[in-house]
Design brief:
The protein is α/β, with parallel strands linked by helices and 240 residues long. It has one domain (2-234): Metal-dependent hydrolases (TIM Barrel, Alpha-Beta Barrel). The chain is 41% helix and 15% strand. The chain is built from 9 helices and 9 strands. The strands form 2 sheets. Strands 3-5-6-7-8-9 form a 6-stranded parallel β-sheet. The chain has a 3-stranded parallel β-sheet with strand order 1-2-4. Strand 1 (2-6), helix 1 and strand 2 (36-39) form a beta-alpha-beta unit.
Length: 240
C-alpha cells in the first residue's frame, strides 16, 4: 500500500512533534503493510517555500537513512500539502512541492466556507504551471457540501481527489462519511490516504479504519485507490 498523504515529518507543522513520533507512525505503517509514505507537511506560505524545502529535504534524508539502517521496510518520499488561496496566483515555482518530484501536486482548500469560484480559479493556476492538482479530503470542505457541482467542474478540468480513511470510517461525522464514500464508490476520487498527524490522535492505522468502511468499497476499489493509482502518481504516469 502507498499512503499519499501523511504529516509524519517532525517539527514542520501540526503533525509529528518529534523524531520519536515520526518513527511511531512508521511502525504503524509497517504493521498496516504500507510500504511507501509521501511526506506532505502543510505548505501555507509560498513565500517561504525555499526555507520549507530546505527543512523538509533534510528531514527526509535523515529519516530514510535511519529507516534503511534499521531495516524498517518502509520508505518516505517527498511531497507537500499546498494550501490554495490567492497567493497561488503569484507563485513562481511549484515543482519542488510535488509528490515524489512528479507532476502531481497535493492541494487543500480552506475548511471554512469560501467562494466556490475560487476553487476553480486556484486549481486552474496549478494546471497552468503544468502540474496536476490532487485535491486533499474534498469530503471535509463545507463549500463542496453546499456546492457539490464544484467537484464535477474540478474533475472535468483535470483535477483528482484524495479521500481520508478516517472519513470513510465515519470518524468525521455522518455527513462527511457519506460524501467520502460516495466519492470513492462513484469513481470520482482515485485515492484513499491516512492524512495521519499523530500515532494516537490521528493515526495511520489503515486496517482498523477499513473495518468501518462501507461494504460498497470493494477489494478492487481498494486496490486502485491505495496501490495502483498512488503508484502511477509516484512514477509520474497518467491515471487513465
Amino acid at each position: 500500500m502507498i499512503d499519499l498523504h501523511c504529516h509524519l515529518l517532525w517539527d514542520m507543522d501540526d503533525g509529528a512533534d518529534s523524531m520519536e513520533t515520526t518513527l511511531a507512525l512508521c511502525e504503524i505503517a509497517i504493521r498496516n503493510k504500507i510500504q511507501v509514505i509521501a511526506a506532505t507537511p502543510h505548505m501555507t506560505n509560498l513565500d517561504m517555500a525555499e526555507d520549507f524545502l530546505y527543512v523538509r529535504n533534510r528531514r527526509l534524508r535523515e529519516l530514510n537513512t535511519y529507516l534503511q539502517s534499521s531495516d524498517m521496510p518502509v520508505r518516505v518520499c517527498s511531497g507537500a500539502e499546498v494550501y490554495l488561496d490567492r497567493s497561488i496566483l503569484e507563485a513562481e515555482a511549484l515543482e519542488d512541492l510535488t509528490l515524489n518530484h512528479s507532476r502531481y501536486l497535493l492541494c487543500e482548500y480552506s475548511l471554512q466556507p469560501f467562494d466556490p469560484d475560487k476553487a476553480l480559479i486556484y486549481a486552474e493556476e496549478v494546471l497552468d504551471h503544468g502540474l496536476v492538482p490532487i485535491i486533499a479530503h474534498p469530503e471535509r470542505y463545507a463549500t463542496f457540501h453546499r456546492h457539490p457541482d464544484v467537484i464535477e467542474e474540478l474533475k472535468s478540468m483535470g483535477a483528482y481527489f484524495q479521500v481520508n480513511a478516517d472519513s470513510l470510517a465515519g470518524r468525521r461525522g455522518e455527513r462527511v462519511g457519506e460524501v467520502a464514500t460516495s466519492l470513492i464508490v462513484d469513481g470520482i476520487a482515485d485515492f484513499i490516504a491516512t492524512d495521519a498527524h499523530h500515532p494516537v490522535h490521528r493515526n495511520n492505522d489503515f486496517m482498523r479504519s477499513m473495518q468501518s468502511f462501507s461494504s460498497k468499497i470493494t477489494p478492487e476499489i481498494l486496490e486502485w485507490t491505495t496501490v495502483i493509482a498512488p503508484r502511477l502518481v509516484l512514477e509520474n504516469k497518467t491515471l487513465d
